[in-house]
Amino acid sequence: MSIAPNELHTLGNLDLLRLIKTGFFCSRQYPPAIERATYLWVLEQRRQGHCLLSGFHSQLEQSIFRYLLARHYPIVYALGRGIQPGLRLEYEAEIEAGHLLFVTPFEPKVNTTTQDTADIRNLLVLDLADNFFIPYMAHGGNLEQLFQSKVAQGKPIITLDLPENQPLIQNGATIYQPSDLFGRES
Length: 186
Fold this sequence. Notes:
Blueprint: E1 9-12, E2 21-24, H1 34-48, E3 51-54, H2 59-70, E4 75-78, H3 86-90, H4 92-97, E5 100-104, H5 115-128, E6 131-134, H6 142-146, E7 157-159, H7 166-170, E8 174-175
Parallel strand pairs: 2-3, 2-6, 3-4, 4-5, 6-7, 7-8
Antiparallel strand pairs: 1-5
């Protein structure tokens, strides 16, 4: 899957697509113990000036979205539906400040997210991302299937050192090591 930018429906700062974009995925059911390491990773990304790209579907993804939005972090939000009229009003300040871009391959008449549209959205994230951070991937879940696709091949993945993430690690993912306050790995 490769979608040209002119084939996307967008709302927000298109310049965000020029930044290094890290695709962020996390399984819907995850161990709460990963939250601290995930937030540490997010803080490092902010310091490095990277842009976070996600569908922000799981509870942790949504929590990270709200956290980053409040801190004016560059975000590309991939939707599993069309851009609805109220979206601009809801995120007007962030859009006007240039910190947020919504992208979708769907027309506005697609007003709900289904499993099929979520799958397409996730493929869009795979396509647009330069690299990925996956703090937790449930065995046999949608993410495991997604990352077996051709679109994901060859792009760097960072993950947490968990038994459930062994398939990622065995396929070359780097284990995240948090930096200390001075930017050194701890």
